[in-house]
Input
Amino acid sequence: MSTTRGVIFDMDGTLLDTMERIARVMNTVLERHHLPIHEMVKYRRFVGDGIRVLVEKALPETHRNEETIQRIITEVKEIYDGERLKGTPAYPGIPELLAELDRRGIRKAILSNKEHSFTIAHARIDLPQFSFDPIVGARPDLPLKPYPDGALFIARIWGFSPSEILLVGDMPADVLTARAAGMPCAAALWGFSDREDLVAAGATVLVERPEKIIALL
Output
């Protein structure tokens, strides 16, 4: 992959370890409504496909009506909006990887299924020393991953061929997005998904630590 000119990163589970915060906020809202909460490990199966899917999976089946889903989404966003200001840790090795990309002049972008405003805020608060251009979160004009639209949107902004862009993510949706967009993919094993799920999605390059990405460039 020596022709890599740009790298697209997923955010949650790839750049930042947001799992504890997501689980805590979701459980806080569930408790507020006297609904069952979940252990953090269970949220590994809930995240990755946007806030609506997270809420649907966290709610009991008896409460998955549209009115309840929308109410819970609103409350989760309100609490998360305050929580994100506390800062979220980057995974070990991520700052060093990003610094190396800067040193090599390789473009960086973020493509996340998290709300667009939260995605931008996380990048600015938690990785302030690095520039990502563009930052693309969940927004109404682009389908969520695994649709390739967001990845191809970034490719057009950069003016690069998809084959010149490495997509790095920890979820099956990232692997499927890369395949649909015609981009090489590095599946991150340090994130939220198991190796088996990533392989089942079609991952062929699995990376155990962020610094190993450098060898793929």
